[in-house]
Design brief:
Keywords: Hydrolase, Magnesium, Metal-binding. Its cofactor is Mg(2+). Belongs to the Nudix hydrolase family. With about 170 residues, the chain is α+β, with helices and mostly antiparallel strands. Helix content is about 15%, strand content about 40%. Strands 1, 2, 3, 4, 5, 6, 7, 8, 9 and 10 form a 10-stranded mixed sheet that branches. The chain is globular and about 45 Å long.
């Protein structure tokens, strides 16, 4: 099991993003999430991380398990994370930007996030983000990294019977 979680919170045509103050994505816009505590499930972790990093308390039925992301690097490092999306109602008040202990939270338009050569987001996000938003199915996304850049990417659908963490709608 992977030890990290990441969630992209959507309100209308915007995603709540965090410009991180800490590595590994220092200075880049990313979803919210983090490392699972010992004995914690991915579902419990993402609910905790959303609350800690944003102050939002999102009901589990508004969160979708979108699969996993894994990577290996040229220095032999490997890792992975559980990937989620959440949708909040358009009338939920959440004004940004907000300075937090992790960085700066701000709403970013989906169009901005999907722009070609957007170097303001983590380098893996452009590869899986559109599919994650548009497809109901879960996928495993695999990356091979060299010198901090993606040199290979592939994905495959995760069969519905394999470990859905939240109910798919």
């Amino acid at each position: 099991m992977y030890k990290y979680t990441l969630c992209f919170i959507q309100r209308n045509d915007e995603i709540l993003m965090l410009n991180r103050d800490k590595p590994p994505v220092l200075g880049l816009w990313n979803g919210v999430g983090g490392k699972m505590n010992d004995g914690e499930t991915p579902a419990a972790c993402i609910l905790r991380e959303i609350a800690e990093e944003t102050g939002l308390h999102i009901a589990p039925e508004h969160i979708q398990d979108k699969g996993t992301v894994s990577w290996n690097t040229d220095d032999g490092t490997t890792g992975g994370m559980h990937l989620f999306t959440a949708v909040i109602a358009s009338d939920v008040p959440y004004s940004t930007p907000i300075r937090t202990l992790e960085g700066i939270l701000d709403w970013k338009s989906i169009d901005w996030l999907l722009m070609d050569r957007n170097h303001g987001v983590g380098c893996m996000i452009p590869h899986y983000f559109r599919r994650m938003l548009q497809e109901k199915n879960r996928f495993h996304h695999r990356f091979t990294m060299e010198n901090g850049s993606v040199c290979a990417y592939s994905y495959e659908e995760i069969p519905a019977c394999e470990g859905t963490i939240f109910v798919q709608t």
